[in-house]
Write a structure and sequence with these properties.
By secondary structure, the protein is α/β, with parallel strands linked by helices. The protein has three domains: about 90 residues, Alpha-Beta Plaits; about 110 residues, 3-Layer(aba) Sandwich (Oxidized Rhodanese, domain 1), CATH 3.40.250.10; about 55 residues, no CATH class. Helix content is about 30%, strand content about 20%. It is built from nine helices and 15 strands. The strands form five sheets. A five-stranded mixed sheet has the order 4-1-3-2-5, covered by helices on one side. Strands 6-10-9-7 form a four-stranded parallel sheet. A two-stranded antiparallel sheet has the order 8-11. The longest helix has 20 residues. The C terminus is likely disordered.
């Protein structure tokens, strides 16, 4: 049995003073040995944490006691090794940055359960849009989905307005998906504000779909990129085949790993020619140190420091 519980969570709600929430939350996580990242903003909370099961339960109980978070339902996975190096609780303007300050994220589109998703996206009148970043789409996607080729989520509004303007008529039905659901909460609210009335999104995101829909029935192709040391996962939330390039922080496929331009811990085919010899040498030394620490059973990164008061 894997020893670390990984909990991905988000909640759009109103926090009048996120800074007052940060200190106690960070202290609790660090005191329990929980690691990961949590983002706090006036619009709510977002993040992924990992730790022992009892520790994660204690942190979730603390979060559920915050305003508007009582019915928080995190996504749980299990990992044999701790997927994070340290704990960070950060204050942000948005818990997921779209760059539309007047948007109300509590008015999203219609949720569609994973069991009903296939029927929806097979409807010829439905346009399916992937709201994730270009490097995520390269790892895996739903059949026939529109790829905006955006480098960040904040590029999505401009892309959508340009894309809609290029069409002879605006689509009547749009279905959208993302990794865990948070970006679709905002992007479907954005489309409704732009005048699209029939907007749908995959409840729980790709993660819930891969967990609940049997692989023989699945319309997902490839793996799903995740923002932690697991890098990518497959059906049943099983570990994927991609690794993370330590040079550019991008996922590397098995084909990329087989390239002579891939050097573990240093570079990959995407960044090999963009990195200087000095950068590669320093990365190689860091990787050597990390491997040495691993053989000794000690952590190379992730030193624990006292939590600063808010």
């Amino acid at each position: 049995m894997a020893s670390y519980r990984v909990a991905a969570l988000y909640r759009f709600t109103r926090f009048d003073d996120p800074a007052a929430i940060r200190g106690p939350l960070a202290a609790l996580c660090c005191g329990l040995g929980v690691k990961g990242t949590l983002l706090l903003a006036r619009e709510g909370i977002n993040g992924t944490i990992a730790g022992e099961d009892a520790a994660i339960e204690a942190v979730l109980a603390h979060i559920r006691a915050l305003p508007g978070c009582a019915d928080l339902h995190p996504k749980t996975a299990w990992a044999e090794r701790m997927p994070f190096h340290r704990m960070k609780v950060r204050l942000k303007k948005e818990i997921v940055t779209l760059g539309e300050p007047d948007l109300d994220p509590t008015d999203p589109g219609t949720y569609v359960a994973p069991a009903d998703w296939n029927a929806l996206i097979r409807d010829p009148d439905v346009v399916v849009i992937d709201t994730r970043n270009d490097y995520e789409v390269a790892v895996g996607r739903f059949e026939g989905a529109v790829d905006p080729r955006t480098a960040s989520f904040s590029d999505f509004p401009a892309w959508f307005r340009d894309w809609r303007a290029s069409l002879p008529a605006a689509p009547k039905k749009i279905a959208m998906y993302c990794t865990g659901g948070i970006r679709c909460e905002k992007s479907t609210a954005f489309l409704k504000a732009e005048g699209i009335e029939q907007v749908f999104h995959l409840k729980g995101g790709v993660l819930d779909y891969l967990e609940q829909v049997p692989e023989p029935e699945s319309l997902w192709r490839g793996e799903c990129f995740v923002f932690d040391e697991r890098v990518a996962i497959g059906h049943g939330l099983a570990p994927g085949t991609h690794v993370l390039c330590r040079g550019c922080r991008m996922p590397v496929s098995p084909e990329g790993q087989a390239s002579p331009l891939y050097v573990e811990g240093v570079s990959c085919p995407a960044c090999h020619d963009q990195r200087s010899d000095d950068q590669k040498a320093r990365a190689a030394e860091r990787h050597r140190q990390a491997l040495h620490c691993e053989t000794l059973g000690i952590e190379h990164v992730g030193a624990t420091f006292p939590v600063k008061p808010s």
